[in-house]
Amino acid sequence: MAMTLRLTTDEDRALTLLASAWGCSKQVAAKRAVVATATRLLDDASLASLAREMIPGHAALEARMRQARGHEAAEF
Q1: How many helices (H) and strands (E) does the chain have?
Q2: Residues near 14 by beta carbon (within 8 Å), at least 6 away in sequence
Q3: How far apart are CA 21 and CA 56, in angstroms?
Q4: For an engineered disulfide with 24, which of 1, 28, 49, 50 has Cβ 3.0 to 4.6 Å away?
């Protein structure tokens, strides 16, 4: 589905920096940012799966987070 995204100068700069950091186009960076944000905010297995597919390193980050939570729980 097509859409137009209107950004302020500062928002465009942020998107440009994000795209540069991810090594992708601004379009791909915007799509990844939507999925990453939705994954953090919503407890939805289909979003988590999409994030693992779209965002390089997301699966490894999830694994590190699970491991850290396990270590925290063991310390208490």
Answers
A1: 4, 0
A2: none
A3: 12
A4: 28
The answer to whether 9 touches 17, Cβ cutoff 8 Å, is no
Find the angle CA(4)-CA(37)-CA(41) to the nearest 5 degrees.
130
Per-residue model confidence as pLDDT tens digits over 12-50 = 999 999 999 989 999 999 988 888 888 777 777 777 777
Q: Please, what is the end-to-end C-alpha distance for the chain in angstroms?
A: 48
Q: From CA 65, how far away is CA 49, in angstroms rounded?
A: 16
Q: Is the pLDDT of residue 57 over 80?
A: no
What's the full length of the chain, in residues? 76
Residue 13 CA to residue 6 CA, distance in Å, equals 13
Would you state the pLDDT for residue 73? 47
